[in-house]
């Protein structure tokens, strides 16, 4: 197994951090208050239009710990991939996959606290392709993507970068052809200077990161393959063993965009995947220099506009598809993902950081 893939796969290896005791309901309120991205993206307004109901989102990652209160009822049985693997994807000793699931479909806690996902009525399909003990392999990832498609996933969230493997590329391209929106992070600087693989695969929504001020996050890689940007810094989510995590990285941004895709697919259930991507790129909030650029792609994802805007009919082959770059003309583009960590005082925090070596 390539060391590059292993490092990226383990991604959220603990590099520093603390686990802090936190009493009951006060912590739930504090956690929701820390979810600044919900306010920045006007998620409350978006959820008045769509909540992601009926959309199956595959999370190819370290598994998902569905014992977390905010994920109760949100996670179906999945599958574990690897030599001798027989699990259902609901074991996660690392916490990264659980964090992604919370950002996508966290349902909050009674009384309004806790982690709320972008699409709280979407369903998570855990596809465990990465193991904290021995990492992952491109074969596991490719098999996991293929299996997710066979199970009816309409969105696939990939939160890792790896070297370029033909089996992964083939699986991603097949998913795109099967009308699945594949969302992936571009990678984290300084480890990843340019957009990583499989972010480069045409047809994938490559997601870069922004900070609290809406500008490009220093942690995010850049490049001509970037399609969209989303919040990536100081993002709070669910973690393994009932913990909460906070961190910086394009993994966060990728999961957020995957959640927005679920909102759009629920709102427009008959819209082809390429048109879902066109809706996202055409309604994104332009940042940086006018038009598409290497830091933001077509802009910061705008959930409300993506759900409500009236778009002109696509022209020519504008519905996109594999091999096209995504854009306001309706073409589709590339993507992948990564997460990091930081401590939030007074909260249960697991510090994680994705690295590629």
From TrEMBL:
InterPro entries cross-referenced by the UniProt entry: Peptidase_S8/S53_dom (IPR000209), Peptidase_S8/S53_dom_sf (IPR036852), Peptidase_S8_subtilisin-like (IPR050131), Peptidase_S8_subtilisin-rel (IPR015500)
Ranges annotated as spanning the membrane: 334-352
Biological process according to GO: proteolysis
Record domain Peptidase S8/S53: where: 52-299
Molecular function via GO: serine-type endopeptidase activity
Domain of life of the organism encoding this protein: Bacteria
Keywords: Hydrolase, Membrane, Protease, Serine protease, Signal, Transmembrane, Transmembrane helix
Residues annotated as catalytic: 61, 96, 251
Signal sequence annotation: 1-21
Keyword Lipid biosynthesis annotated: no
Family in the record: Belongs to the peptidase S8 family.
Protein's recorded name: S8 family serine peptidase
Protein species of origin: Dactylosporangium aurantiacum
């Amino acid at each position: 197994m390539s060391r590059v893939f292993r490092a990226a796969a383990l991604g959220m290896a603990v590099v520093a951090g603390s686990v802090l005791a936190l009493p009951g309901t006060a912590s739930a309120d504090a956690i929701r208050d820390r979810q600044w991205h919900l306010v920045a993206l006007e998620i409350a307004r978006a959820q008045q239009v769509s909540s992601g109901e009926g959309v199956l989102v595959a999370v190819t990652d370290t598994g998902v710990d569905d014992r977390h209160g905010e994920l109760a009822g949100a996670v179906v049985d999945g599958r574990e991939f690897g030599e001798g693997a027989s699990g259902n994807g609901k074991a996660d000793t690392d916490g990264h996959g659980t964090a992604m699931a919370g950002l996508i479909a966290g349902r909050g806690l009674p009384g309004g606290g806790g982690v709320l996902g972008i699409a709280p009525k979407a369903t998570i399909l855990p596809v465990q392709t990465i193991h904290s003990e021995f990492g992952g392999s491109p074969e596991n990832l490719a098999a996991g993507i293929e299996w997710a498609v066979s199970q009816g996933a309409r969105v696939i969230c990939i939160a890792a970068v790896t070297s370029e493997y033909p089996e992964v590329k083939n699986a991603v391209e097949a998913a795109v052809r099967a009308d699945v929106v594949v969302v992936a992070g571009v990678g984290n600087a300084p480890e990843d200077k340019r957009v990583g693989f499989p972010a480069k695969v045409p047809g994938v929504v490559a997601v870069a990161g922004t900070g609290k001020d809406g500008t490009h996050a220093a942690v995010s890689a850049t490049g001509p393959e970037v399609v969209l940007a989303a919040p990536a810094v100081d993002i709070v989510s669910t973690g393994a063993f009932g913990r909460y995590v906070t961190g910086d990285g394009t993994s966060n941004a990728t999961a957020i965009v995957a959640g927005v895709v679920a909102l759009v697919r629920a709102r427009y259930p008959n819209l082809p995947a390429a048109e879902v991507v066109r809706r996202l790129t055409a309604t994104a909030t332009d940042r940086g220099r006018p038009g598409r650029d290497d830091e933001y792609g077509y802009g910061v994802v705008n959930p409300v506009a993506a759900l409500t805007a009236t778009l002109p009919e696509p022209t020519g082959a504008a519905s996109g598809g594999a091999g096209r770059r995504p854009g306001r003309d309706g073409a589709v583009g590339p993507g992948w993902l990564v997460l990091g960590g930081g401590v939030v005082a007074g909260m249960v925090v697991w510090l994680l950081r994705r690295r590629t070596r």
